[in-house]
Each structure stands twice: as C-alpha cells, then as structure tokens.
C-alpha cells in the first residue's frame, strides 16, 4: 500500500520540487497539497492520509505548529515538520511531529523521514 502524503508549504517552488521527487517514487503518492493551514485541514478531512509534510513557518504566526498538533490529533496521520529556520525542532516535536527536518537538506533524508513516519500506517 502506498504512503498517502499531504504536502503543506506556502512556497509553490518547495511543493513543486517535492512533488517532482515524489513522482519518481513507487511507494509514496501525494494525495493533496496546500499553501495554508486552513486549506490543509479542509483537504485532510477526507484524504485518508498516512503522513503530512508540514512547513512549521506558514505565513500566519503559529499556524504551522497548530497545524501539526491538529493533524496529529484529528486525522491520526503522522507529521514530518520542515522549516527553513533552525531552532524549531523542540517546538515541532512537542506539537506532535514525529520528525523535524531543516529545508535545504538532502531529499533522501526527506524520503526516509516520510517512510519512517508511515511505518505504523502501512498495512
């Protein structure tokens, strides 16, 4: 069963780059993309997600961390938090993220984090 992924980032270039990489993977499929927490929550309700990849620095202050908390508690999907700014790992993990990655790292690390996060959700 493929990992069902939601990608949440306000930067379309980041979403596009992640999408292009995921398209090459056999075991991960992006089922939804969002540029905001509000859009992500609307998409997540019926998406049967395995994992959400969430930028914790969305445009509205604090929404990324609130989104991590909400997705984790309301949808049951695992959340991998990402950020262009360091120093947010503790806050992201406290909000319920299973992993935290800084943007600019290697894509193999992102893929590994998604796969690791999905382990409890795989049948």
Features:
five-stranded parallel beta sheet; Rossmann fold; 123 residues; single chain
Could you explain how this protein is built, in words?
The protein is of the alpha/beta class. The chain has one domain: Response regulator (Rossmann fold), CATH 3.40.50.2300. The protein contains five helices and five strands; from the N terminus they run E-H-E-H-E-H-E-H-E-H. The protein has helices at residues 12-22, 37-44, 63-75, 89-94, 107-118; strands spanning 3-8, 28-34, 51-55, 78-83, 99-102. Strands 2-1-3-4-5 form a five-stranded parallel sheet, with helices on both faces. The chain is globular, with a radius of gyration of 13 Å. The N and C termini lie close together (7 Å). The model has no long low-confidence stretch (mean pLDDT 90).
Quick structural overview:
This protein is of the alpha/beta class and 123 residues long.
Oligomer: single chain
Count of DSSP-assigned helices = 5
Radius of gyration: 13 Å
State the shape.
globular
Relative strand content = 15-25%
CATH architecture: 3-Layer(aba) Sandwich
Round the mean pLDDT to the nearest integer and report it: 90
Structural class: alpha/beta
CA(first)-CA(last) distance: 7 Å
Low-pLDDT ranges: none
Q: Work out the count of structural domains.
A: 1
């Amino acid at each position: 069963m493929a990992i069902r992924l939601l990608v949440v980032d306000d930067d379309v270039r980041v979403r596009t780059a992640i999408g292009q990489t995921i398209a090459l993977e056999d075991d991960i499929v992006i089922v939804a993309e969002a540029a905001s927490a509000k859009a992500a929550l609307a998409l997540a309700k019926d998406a049967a997600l395995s994992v959400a990849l969430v930028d914790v620095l969305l445009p509205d202050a604090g929404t990324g961390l609130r989104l991590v908390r909400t997705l984790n508690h309301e949808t049951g999907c695992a959340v991998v938090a990402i950020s262009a700014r360091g120093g947010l790992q503790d806050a992201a993990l406290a909000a319920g993220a299973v992993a935290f990655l800084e943007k600019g790292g290697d894509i193999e690390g992102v893929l590994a984090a998604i796969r690791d996060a999905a382990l409890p959700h795989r049948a």
